[in-house]
DNA-directed RNA polymerase subunit beta (Lactococcus taiwanensis), 62 residues
Amino acid sequence: MFKKAVKFLGLRVSLIILVVILLVVAAILGLMVGYGFLGGGNPSNIFNHDLWRGVINKLNPS
């Protein structure tokens, strides 16, 4: 019984980890497509800290 519970929990945890990884990959690809191809910028610029600082400054005027 204990082995079945551990196996079940291991399967659930591995599925959750897989879903989280897929969500992160989808978000990164979505940002790259949106900024690079639709926005006309360089897709690798989404990893640039200055780009995100500018976005945050535009969203939070102070």
User: Anything to note?
Assistant: The longest helix spans residues 2-38. Helices lie at 2-38, 49-59. The mean pLDDT is 90.
